[in-house]
Sequence to fold (736 residues):
Amino acid sequence: MLPPSTAAQHPVAAKKTRRGHGRPTLYDVAEVAGVTQITVSRFFRSPELLAPETVQRVRQTVESVGYVPNLQAGQLASGRSRVVATLIPNVGHSVFAKTVQGLAEGLRVSGYEMLLTSKGYQPQREERQLREVLGWSPAAIVVTGLHRTAAAQQLLLDARGAGTPVVEIWDYPTRKTKHRELVQIGFNHRAAGQLMAAHLIDTGHQHVAYVDSGVTEDVRVHLRRDGFIGQARKCGVQAVVLTAPPGDALDGGGIILKHLLDLHPRITAAAFANDHLATGALLQARAHGIAIPERLALLGFGDFPISRHLHPGLSTVHTPTAEIGRIAAATVLEWMSRPVQPANAALDCTLIVRGSTKPALQRENAKP
Amino acid sequence: MLPPSTAAQHPVAAKKTRRGHGRPTLYDVAEVAGVTQITVSRFFRSPELLAPETVQRVRQTVESVGYVPNLQAGQLASGRSRVVATLIPNVGHSVFAKTVQGLAEGLRVSGYEMLLTSKGYQPQREERQLREVLGWSPAAIVVTGLHRTAAAQQLLLDARGAGTPVVEIWDYPTRKTKHRELVQIGFNHRAAGQLMAAHLIDTGHQHVAYVDSGVTEDVRVHLRRDGFIGQARKCGVQAVVLTAPPGDALDGGGIILKHLLDLHPRITAAAFANDHLATGALLQARAHGIAIPERLALLGFGDFPISRHLHPGLSTVHTPTAEIGRIAAATVLEWMSRPVQPANAALDCTLIVRGSTKPALQRENAKP
DNA sequence: TTGAAAGCGCTAACAG
DNA sequence: CTGTTAGCGCTTTCAA
Fold:
């Protein structure tokens, strides 16, 4: 219960103006406990090396003085840190929430902190942030997506070269990508796009549309679009591509629905870049008495919570978001424990068929 | 464009086993540029003090060597850091997303990083995290909510005592709270609850319900509930309280709707702890042909994006989420620039009336 | 089981 | 405008 101000100063320089903030240091604790700095240091890192009696004494002192270890100093001295830097396009985006959660939990149990940085989709900004983040000498780096400048990529490769594990999440390359040099945990976006097209075609549609998101420069959504178009073409089915207006995705979905019906009346099925867009379209359709899926089948992407609550339920593609986080954590931890670069992990997307794409006949059997 | 592997080592100690990671240091840059460390240091912090020609030379060396400043060392030496620690109950929760966004942006433009930590609602865990976070000697601390142990509170007060700005967001105390010692930026949750009750009563309801969230131990949602009940009682209106089952909020809302109609048939209006619950109830009602708002009026909280897209639109309370983040950033920055504790900020919640609570008559005029 | 000495990479303070 | 000196608070050898 000693007030912190009572904490001993360096005995020699007690009156000299101390530079650091006034918090008690290892030295202060040691002084009070009647040992040396290193003993207090050991108390935290390997108490089993100390005499039980010493442990006891130090613990009490630490508590009474209110000592909090200075991480910066520790990491500077040891040359290694317990921070895992994570770069995510948008911290606030629900899509990444589960991934971040899984990653954070996985790391925390092993005693690592997560330095989370939202980078936006502008590659240029990413480079700057990456540089800042490297200044923390992170124990590992987790980045999202392929879309980055050559300089940024070089920074990552250098970091890995210097022994820092670098893992890229949310993506998995189909072919040789110039970025495949990094360990990747994610799913194949192109294949996901193909999956979407295949489903619409399988359910009998000959005129389909793909609605791209208007807000993102994220290459991954474009890969899905390309996969969709490619698959449709392969099956001899016509596919038109529309781009949703920027702004609120629910609004965008509704607007695009109108465009679609007006400009492309022959189209009978539409796939969307994400469930928010599809939801907006579905709600708009219901409000205007457009029969889903009879007049128009709707297929989303991402399996957001709302999707199965809509009427009809929104068919969609389930992405392994939480799993990506968990596996990324495991991968990073493994890599840090032994310096062997771990393998990539390709996770599966699964199609979830609900009312919005089922032919009317089958829909009867679906429970509400 | 020199490959970073060319980066100079300490010329003297090139072969000696260096303790730190192998990255180039100020010393390395200085050596190559033909100046001393401090000059390179100044190049980063106050280049205007250097001769233009020196600036040029240092810049080139920095680039060719691939130097990245070591933040830990810098902060240790200077005693101040550029990190603002932020503790949020749940990083993945959409409610906090906008706040975090606003905070992060506000801080970034002033050159601060945000160390974001998700603490969950368990007070015990918060204390541990707080302790870890303090080890980073943050330039400021932003915490969420009142719910914490005495020890955690003491840590915060100590930190403030040591000159670290501490700001609490998302809450604002009505009466004297034992935690009111911290600067607070938020809104009055009790008043928000009262607002909700008042609206339902104003629109003619005599039997109302409040549906609490089943997943959180967050005191703030309980404050809203208490405000609701208190207001109802004051107006002589009966209010029953239900608690949604844990798990998916949309499911929970649907389930609670059934309970409500079965067990409390006289009730004609229900307020929900958040828009997700209310949305679940609304969708469920539509699926079962229950007239909203004629049979049952529904009122949410939080003004989530989906709410205005439902049919009927979900009446709700708009909370100043983004504003909280922005103001918190401004407050923290102000406090760091001059050591005068800034004032609390009480922000307003506003009622947003849509179809789900409007009497049938007025609803005719509303645009779809 | 504990200690002494020597830095980690950087910046504050005071010269020149 | 640039340099010198002395740490920041901790951990790493190596010794006792």
About this structure: Residues 321-337 of chain A form the longest helix (17 residues). Residues 1-18, 361-368 of chain A have pLDDT under 50 and may be disordered. Chain A touches chain B through 60 residues (CB under 8 Å).
